Amino acid sequence: xxxxxxxxxxxxxxxxxxxxxxxxxxxxxxxxxxxxxxxxxxxxxxxxxxxxxxxxxxxxxxxxxxxxxxxxxxxxxxxxxxxxxxxxxxxxxxxxxxxxxxxxxxxxxxxxxxxxxxxxxxxxxxxxxxxxxxxxxxxxxxxxxxxxxxxxxxxxxxxxxxxxxxxxxxxxxxxxxxxxxxxxxxxxxxxxxxxxxxxxxxxxxxxxxxxxxxxxxxxxxxxxxxxxxxxxxxxxxxxxxxxxxxxxxxxxxxxxxxxxxxxxxxxxxxxxxxxxxxxxxxxxxxxxxxxxxx
Length: 294
Known about the structure:
Layout: H1 2-8, H2 10-41, H3 46-63, H4 65-70, H5 75-91, H6 99-118, H7 121-125, H8 127-136, H9 141-152, H10 156-171, E1 176-179, E2 182-185, E3 188-191, H11 199-215, H12 220-252, H13 254-261, H14 263-293
Antiparallel strand pairs: 1-2, 2-3
Helix pairs in contact: 2-3, 2-5, 2-6, 3-8, 3-11, 5-6, 9-11, 10-12, 11-12, 12-13, 12-14
């Protein structure tokens, strides 16, 4: 009888449904955290950005806790949120075949929790935390974006990188040519595959710029400017990297090519990219500060 009374209480029923949704999060957590830690051990920068996004989302929600306490979801929105949560809970055990499906259902559960607890008003008042959670719900959003882009890309980007790199080699006096996505230099040739286009670093720089804009409380226009700067810088600095790989392959031997093409070479270029980006941002903000004082 007591249990029946508990379930007759709308608030108590809501708490039980939310608790069921949180179980999905606990189930998904080892997969999410395991992938992030594995990538971090191998020197990949994106896991740090994911952790920062989670921290910023929690911090923003904590700052708005008093406003959220005043929000109350209407009955229809609460029921819809419960349906969304229960759908995610019901499908999750059968959709663990891929990380993206688990991430999608966990995000669906989070949306249901927010909708049933605070209503649609939550998404209007907490747009930034919602976006940050969306950014971090998958442990490798950069790889997910890469996969989506590759499904619609017919190697145009690879050919463009090969062409621009061969032009840069010609500009420094080398007799380089490109056919499709292959660069010919001397007696050797390298093939520009998707991983060599700089897209992965461009996504990383875009996420870094976005988080930097949130941390520094920049306007949306300024944040978009930082994102564009990061993306452009990643693609531009990828050209010297491809040139170096062509040199290593044609003149320096297999070991040199493997070094610059491997994890050490990637880390060196990532460090150079972030260093250049840091000083550019520092210069931009110092110029903005001087103009503000004038």
